[in-house]
Amino acid sequence: MDTTFLPSDQPTMHRQEFFRLVGISIGAIVLKRCMIGCSDQVNGTPPPTPSQKVDFTLKLDDRANDNLKIKGGYVISNGVIVAQTKDGQYVAVSANCTHQNTQLVYKSVENQFYCPLHLSRFATNGDVIAGPAVVPLTQYIVEPNLTAGTIRIHN
After folding, report:
1. pLDDT, position 13
2. Alpha carbon separation from 63 to 4, 27, 59, 72 (Å, rounded)
3. 100: closest CA among 47, 146, 64?
């Protein structure tokens, strides 16, 4: 069986040009994802600087703070991440990684704060456990009043 190609009036693209355009497109997609990942927190309040006065109270009966009722739960409020450790203690540190300002999460199994972007890890007192971050998080004073159902965070 013979394969016959009909002549086309459409311009053709050389193989090298095709691969160059594909490479540029993939590079643009990857660069966009990197820029999004390295950008500042999109919503919420910016993290407080160590010299800023922080003083706020969380009400445990507020639906937004339900995670604080369970061991290993955490919430982010006013640029501060507040967590209940697996030992039942409340801790609070600045909510964003000191490496590139990415919002942290609390990993209760490891009892550490974790940066999902570049994998920095911090102890519950804010000390750096693993980089690339080298600057510790700001630690805040936590005063739980469980009879009143409140937790005060301040510096």
Report:
1. 77
2. 70, 42, 9, 17
3. 47
DSSP 24-42: HHHHHHHHHHHHHHHSPPS
CA distance 114 to 96: 10
In DSSP terms, 145 is beta-bridged to: 150
Strand segments (E) across 20-138: 55-59, 74-77, 80-84, 90-94, 105-107, 112-114, 121-122, 128-130
Alpha helices by DSSP H, the chain: 15-38
134-153: pLDDT as tens digits: 999 999 999 999 899 999 99
Per-residue pLDDT tens for 93-107? 999 998 888 899 999
CA–CA separation, 148 and 150 (whole Å):
6
Distance CA 20, CA 17 (A): 5
Give the integer Cα–Cα distance in Å for 139 and 155. 8
